[in-house]
Amino acid sequence: MKKFFLLILFIVSGIIDAGYLTYEHYQQVIPPCTVNRLLPVASDCGRVLRSSYSVMFGIPLALAGVFQYSVLFVILIAYLVYRKKVFAFWLIIQSIIGVIFSAYFMYIQLGVLKSICIYCTYSAIISFSIFFIINKVLRKERFDLRLKVISIIYQYVAKPIFFMFDPEFIHNTHIFFGELLGKTFLKKYINWKFNYQSSKLKQKVAGINFIGPVGLAAGFDYEAKLTQILYSLGFGFQTVGTMTRLPYEGNPKPRLGRLPKSQSLMVNKGYKNIGAKLISNKLKNMNFKIPLGISIGASNNRQVNTINKAIKDITDSFKLFEKLKTKNNYYELNISCPNLVNTDLDFYKPENFRQLLQSVFRLNIKKPIFVKMPISVSDKEFTALLNILIDFKFVKGIIIGNLLKDRKNKLIDKQEVRKFKVGSFSGKPCEERSNELIKLTYKKYGKKLVIIGCGGVFNGQDAYTKIKLGASLIQLITGMIYQGPQVISQINLEIEELLEKDGFRNIYEAIGYENN
């Protein structure tokens, strides 16, 4: 509150200073003006105040200054009384306007007129002081405003251009530039502009320290090219993959498609990746600022055509990463990709799932393992899988969940889905079922299993809903594509605000709150 009091003093001082100059202007009197004679410019208020630069559009700049400071005063009082974000944004914008004009008029004094008016200079000092104080006391609001501006630019400029091109081409282009930025000093600038973190969002889950709850889901960075840049966007953790023992160039095109009305993507990659061996060699000597997960699945290859072969294929990938001592923090075991060539390899069957977990258990892996679960199954089928994995202590949690297979889902636009004869769907159509299964899992096993919520997260409220249903962490891809790269930090900021609104001191207290 002391800083706000100081801010009020500066604003009132500005009103007095500008008001005095306005009075003298209309009285046609030049105020006394002396400054240190050692300065390399003349002390001549008359030259400054009588110049053509002292009036703009017939309005004395001093009067404009009175208006500027008065507006700041009114907005500040409104903010202190109502604590509305709109007033904070207005204060920030108004202070920026003041600084821009003050800087310009100081240039006119020093660079053009070669004279200084101490009253004008004092006003400039006040404007800069107000700007710095506002940016200090409204740090979070300033960050929020910046992210909103970036969001507007993305929605109305960048996204329309991106959506004119093939989605896989745009994806590959973003991966290329993301990898490039991760290798340059520019990632520090991106971190400064994009990365919002809060101590209220930090948590320790399965023995891993997460600086934020929002992570990149498997299926985006399947060649591990973005591991050095994602932290700068506000991600709290990241997943590479899904990796398989054998490389796979991807299913026949189309592998990606957009459903804008449904806020969804058609996904038909089928574990597209360069193979576990190349990825493990790439990652083995790298360090990461945020926890890294490696998603592992069965090779999408017709030779891997039995459950036993698929299990051996998966365990061989685990062995490879463990042998090279990759510095990942956890693994994801993906049993739920719906776009594989061998559709009869079904780990949804309890006996197959148990056999898989028994084989992974024998590897004696010390790092936490999370199972990527399907959502296109019944509650009964899902519960049967839960009842099996709860017996295996190395499974620390589950990710709920993977893509939606149901093409007749009420949230998928019928005309949009007709464009795609293959693939499954991400984004908003997955949200309802994901939330139902999070609720089911938390009710049944409470805190025995860590839940990572995935599906339909486009903003902070979407993420917060999953958290209150029982998710400790959140993953996304589609929300970032539709909302922009700033959405991760926006979600962090919005979750923090929602926690404060509901009276929670930190994210721990909100997990499962609506499900207890």
From TrEMBL:
The Vitamin K epoxide reductase domain, residue ranges: 2-138
- Localization terms from the record: Membrane
Topology with regard to the membrane? Multi-pass membrane protein
Q: Which cofactor does it need?
A: FMN
According to the UniProt entry, its GO molecular function terms are: dihydroorotate dehydrogenase (quinone) activity; quinone binding
Which Pfam families does the record match to this protein?
Answer: DHO_dh, VKOR
- Give the EC number(s) listed in the UniProt record: 1.3.5.2
Q: Does the keyword Lipid biosynthesis apply?
A: no
Keywords attached to this entry? Disulfide bond, Flavoprotein, FMN, Membrane, Oxidoreductase, Pyrimidine biosynthesis, Quinone, Redox-active center, Transmembrane, Transmembrane helix
- What are the annotated GO cellular component locations? cytoplasm; plasma membrane
Q: In which pathway does it act?
A: Pyrimidine metabolism; UMP biosynthesis via de novo pathway
Task: Give the source's domain of life in one word.
Answer: Bacteria
Under the heading InterPro entries, the entry gives:
Aldolase_TIM, DHO_dehydrogenase, Dihydroorotate_DH_2, Dihydroorotate_DH_cat, VKOR, VKOR/LTO1, VKOR_sf
Give me the segments passing through the membrane. Answer: 57-82, 89-110, 116-138
Swiss-Prot/TrEMBL GO biological process terms: 'de novo' pyrimidine nucleobase biosynthetic process; pyrimidine ribonucleotide biosynthetic process
Per the record, the similarity remark reads: Belongs to the VKOR family.
**Protein name in the entry:** Dihydroorotate dehydrogenase (quinone)
| Organism the protein comes from | Candidatus Roizmanbacteria bacterium CG07_land_8_20_14_0_80_34_15
